[in-house]
Request: fold
Amino acid sequence: MNTDTTSKSTTNGGTAGDTAGQPRACLLCGQCTAVCPAFLTTGQEELSPRAKHLVFAALRDEPGRLGLKPARELADRCLSCGRCAAICPQGLSVPQALAALRAKHPNWQQWLWKQWIEHGRLLWPALAQMTRVVPGAVVPEGVQHMLRSAAAMLPPPPPAPWIVADRATSDSLRDGDGPDGMRNHTAGSATRGEAARPPAMLFAGCTARRIRPRWRDTARALLRWLGHPAPAQGDEDSFTCCGSTLEHAGIPDAAAAARARNLDAWRAAGRPLLVTFCATCHHGLSEYPGHADLDWQAGERKAWAAALRPLSTLWGDAAFRVTADAPAQPEADAPAPVRYHQPCHRKGTDPDAVWLRSLLGSRMRAPGGVNCCGMGGVLQLAAPDLSRTVADACWNALLPERAAASIPASTSPSTASSAAPATASTPDAPAATANTAPQPNITVLTGCSGCTLQLAATAPPNVRVLHWLDVVGVPHG
Ligand code: SF4
Ligand code: SF4
Reply:
């Protein structure tokens, strides 16, 4: 199974993937336009990656040719999903080029985003609580959008588990596995199973640490149940933000400091397995070996890459069972009660989706094609209208019954001035709509913290959004 989510692009912070520092030229081949949600949902060529690279090249070659303000306004309209970088034959990365541009021209958005990330422990729950008492009608639309996002931070009531850890035999990943030979193999012993597994450290990420501790607790319980002991030394609480959001927001110093702290925490723990349950955190951590600002020791880059594992790739032959609390198998032709959203940062095969499908069968449907939730990091602040348009298209893919009953994109105010590209009318790339009709009870599962919050903030009525950890139960003892 391919779980490599590392971008093909380099991390030289420029507009191109040339390790010698000389930007490569965009070939105008158009491959990126087939995967860019900003383009697919609006049909606006100027939002496509190739158009952005033309802007970057113009700014680089003739800094005075384009006004910086309009250039930045255009360039800001990016979801930082990284889909273009993964497919571009030249290794061009819009998020990296934007990060460099934003870093050169910091303004209030970067400052606000920095506060949002660095002081989230206080700010996020406070904002979430505020949504309970602030009447939405008295605040401007832009702020209302932020408040809706904040409201999504309130954890939903925990559902009764649909999936229960049933048996762990722990013999598929024994102590000593892995190509690096740098892990701490001396700590602790497995709590279950006949063979000990290597020590594992959980990288929970900002969202779980601050507002969804249940995800972290369930993931920790799963690791122990599988037989992965905690490292004898080190502390998971030493981890901080993975840094990718800070990097893309144009705050490279803060991003570099976060990366250094995380690397130190992993070293202090004896370089154990580093386990994630958020696709965006995983993607950010997977890019660490490309960062020259980290003081890597010999062989450590390889050890980091080998240690980094999505939680759902560690099951081995552990068994899970679906409980009576899970949605029932639908009748023939009836809509699936569970939908799965594949995060943009989970490129290639998504191990979460593979595992859930093997358990839930026809209960779960996952749309193919390009479906971005519209989160986009700093985009939420820079271009909330684009964020909402992309989110709406994502919902139409998740809920085709909604798309069939909704307003055509050509009459939607947000897209009326744009001719949609041919790809936007295909099943894989639905056009944006503006329907808010009540939906049947449907649960959307995903494997990314940011996607969970964004989808929860934009979900139609009667649709709930959960991280898959929300529906997993682990036996005590
Ligand atoms: S895929 Fe790369 S080279 Fe091709 S048009 Fe897009 S940015 Fe240019
Ligand atoms: S990062 Fe995503 S939204 Fe931004 S230009 Fe690339 S594909 Fe488009």
About this structure: Residues 252-268 form the longest helix (17 residues). DSSP finds 19 helices and ten strands in the chain. The radius of gyration is 22 Å.
